[in-house]
């Protein structure tokens, strides 16, 4: 059956610098084009944590240097990250399509996502961005740049920014029109540029929306059948990393809610994915969500691997 599928790409699909990104995206394009070749309509969402952190730090450092480049506001850095990642992704997918004899237009839509400027998330920064640093480097960044830094699961220190929930997608009609006309669209990159409504204006606000929540939102708005969240693991586990770890092939809404309450999914990594999958599943009967790895996405949609969220 032909499905309308929103695919959310995790950090392992993109890499840490432009060279790595170009190379990784060639690999990322293959499972995406597999889905397109099977006749599915595919909409692509990607993360931007490492990239928006890199861009913002570079712009801020340059503006404070002898070269005195202009201060670049955070929402503009988010827009730059969408352009930078979208540029590589659309070319990678385009090339893979042409290699397989398919001439299908691919485009990135710079996408703004409406948030509530009074979202409580603005008072507690939780979203890790940029690179990992040592404790000493983190302390220097706190005192020199005023950043909020946290220790991230034993992997080092990372800057954190606010992460409000997505309410609506400003460019949803444009995305819908492109999808209906057979275009492959990359949208809500990095969760979308967070904006709030002020009369007729959309005003950017410094934050990074979680791309898992944003992908569930655009999937709902586009009336998609399927949300596929691709990450570094083939399945979701309970008791992850413990001796009694159990990998799950399917999850009902009731089971997912119970496991969330029992604390099986790590905050900032697996938890938003499970919450986003659950939200999409519950938004309309018949909708399905899958969490699996990039490499296994074809098998995942064929039903032979991954964690499938279904209402029974
Ligand atoms: N319960 C769990 N089941 C599976 N993976 C988990 C679980 N809890 C945490 N993880 C970790 O979460 C990671 C995915 O989160 P993250 O790396 O932040 O995602 P992204 O692909 O969006 O960059 C997995 O690779 C895994 O290491
Ligand atoms: N915006 C966002 O969720 O990015 P990451 O997936 O890179 O954390």
UniProtKB/TrEMBL annotation:
Question: Its pathway?
Answer: Metabolic intermediate metabolism; carbamoyl phosphate degradation; CO(2) and NH(3) from carbamoyl phosphate: step 1/1
Keyword Kinase attributed: yes
Keywords linked to the UniProt accession: Kinase, Transferase
Domain Aspartate/glutamate/uridylate kinase as annotated: residue spans: 3-291
Cross-referenced SUPFAM superfamilies, in alphabetical order?
Carbamate kinase-like
Catalytic activity annotation: hydrogencarbonate + NH4(+) + ATP = carbamoyl phosphate + ADP + H2O + H(+)
Q: What is this protein called?
A: Carbamate kinase
Species this protein is from: Fusibacter ferrireducens
Q: Gene for this protein?
A: arcC
